[in-house]
Amino acid sequence: MRRDSPYRTLEDTFGGRAGFTVGHSHSGFNAFRHHLLGYRTAARPTLYGEMLGPLVTARRILDSVRDGRIDVGPLDAYWHLLLARHQPALTADVRVLAFTDAAPMPAFVAAADTPESVIAKLRAAFLGAAQQPWFKALADGLLLDGFAEVSERDFAVLLEWEREAIAADYERPA
User: Using N-to-C axis directions, what is the helix angle for 77-86 and 135-142, rounded to 10°?
Assistant: First the structure.
């Protein structure tokens, strides 16, 4: 949301223009759709007068808000933090109106045929990276504290949100 916009809440933007990145993005599509699902009713199945997308990248969402093409759009919190730190002019004139439910960040994955011994070494290297002397210098700029081990189960919520939206006939934010 542009800082100079008259909107004060997400609900104020309903009827306006919103955007999304791409249909396979969690933060730029699925989480946004899941959040909006809670506002839909039988009397109001469509929340926005116009939905622009795919805008493809988080930067294009931000630029589209800043230049007025859309009133509101999803921006991953991590990208927002990185941009605010490294390119503050890009976030200085925008406001956050709402937060989606928290979900895990994308995981590092390996090809299905990667030997387990290689996966174990990669896992150990990432999990131990924060204790290495070189880590702090690299991590500060990336706003990282370290890495955590995850499983497929940790990401089940993303698929659940997608199933809920499809079951509610809300395949695309609107």
Answer: 100
Residues 148 and 127: their CA atoms lie apart, in Å, by 6
Residues facing residue 2 across a β-bridge: 94
Are 48 and 16 a contacting pair, CB within 8 Å?
yes
Tell whether the torsion through CA atoms of 75, 80, 86 and 89 is positive or negative.
positive
Domain boundaries, the chain: 11-102+155-167, 108-149
Distance CA 56, CA 12 (A): 25
- DSSP readout, 121-133? HHHHHHHHGGGST
Does 96 score more than 80 pLDDT? yes
pTM exceeding 0.70? yes
